[in-house]
Model the fold of this input.
Amino acid sequence: MNFTDRHDAGRRLAQRLDHLKDQDVIVLGLPRGGVPVAAEVARFLGAPLDVILVRKLGVPFQPELGMGAIGEGDVRVVNHDVMREADLTAADLAQVEAKERIELNRRVSVYRVDRPPIDIRGRTVVIVDDGIATGSTARAACQVARTRGAARIVLAMPVAPSGWSGRFSDVADESVCVLTPSDFYGIGEFYRDFTQTTDGEVVACLAGAASRIGGAESSSATDVPSTEDSAGDPEVVIPAGTVRLHGQLSMPDAAAAIVVFVHGSGSSRHSPRNRYVADHLNHAGLATLLFDLLTEDEESDRGNVFDVALLAERLTAATDWLRSLPETRDLPIGYFGASTGAAAALWAAAQPGTPVAAVVSRGGRPDLAGQRLPAVTVPTLLIVGGDDTAVLNLNRRAAERLGGEKQLDIVTGATHLFSEPGTLEKVAELATRWFTRHLVGVRPATGAA
Done:
């Protein structure tokens, strides 16, 4: 009895965890292969999904033997007995940790761009991988989860060698597995499709789970400062190839320019943070368009959220639509992008003959625009939270590659969602200043609408 793929394995594993339904649990997947399995478990249990990022600290001359493990937030677990038996010093440990910390931080920068780690203190956590071979990574994950304050740990696997659970009784409170063959040579032999999971698939799984339970943007709407009710803005429908996209168009009297909002979740018009910034722009005399880059059916495939080319195509369609309307055709155009939407904004702005005159990115992923960055010659402002370290580093590197005028503004004390008091107001102020400077009084770019 083999698994078709990791999703099939996750669904079958989830059935073994039925006793955890309706309990307050968090599912943690081990990147990369464990995350698609964990996504199915989280869906079945109706639980939040997160990754548990760990690196085993192997003995230098015997790497499979763990002398400890490290996790996010400077979490470190040390097995002093192993260190003594291997005659290792604190300097030996520090050298190994420094090397493993580099890879850990790389993974944090890839997987943590949209959301901080879920707080697991006092909670039951289900740690999931696509299988266990040596078990060293799973052991490290259990140790790190316990150090982070997990009250109960359930270690769950689709496949593991016979007798595996006894090896983890000291770090896990419960062990669950679907297949425990006596003849075990490797995890891959029990999957028909054991293709390597990509970083993009991991991020898509996390985004899909966040969307299912409300998403980081919508669930934290109470952190957004109040503004005037914008419900009176007219709803519009934008043609984009074979689909129709819904949006909200706000037109102040004698608008001097228009800013199009682009959000990675696909639902710009429902983002409270985008709405807050848009209200500030409206008060400054700038029109705004917030629209959904994806249809409801398309949002069900979370891979679309990271299809930057598709999002940029939709943005271009919305821009062409604005240029076909009598009330907006002569207005200079700016793009305001957040998360992966910032990459889409830059991708579209890099196109020859683009009508866009300025771009602002809030906590964005400009790096996902890749080779398009040097072709972006319009003035670009990158706004990043000072405490959003991973995204800040990505923005610094991307800024170096942008081809036109660019500026990186760091909002002190802000994390990725700018939920700290006063930080979103600062974003709105910076964006308003940039767009006013680069759009007001600027002649619109010419070209076909």
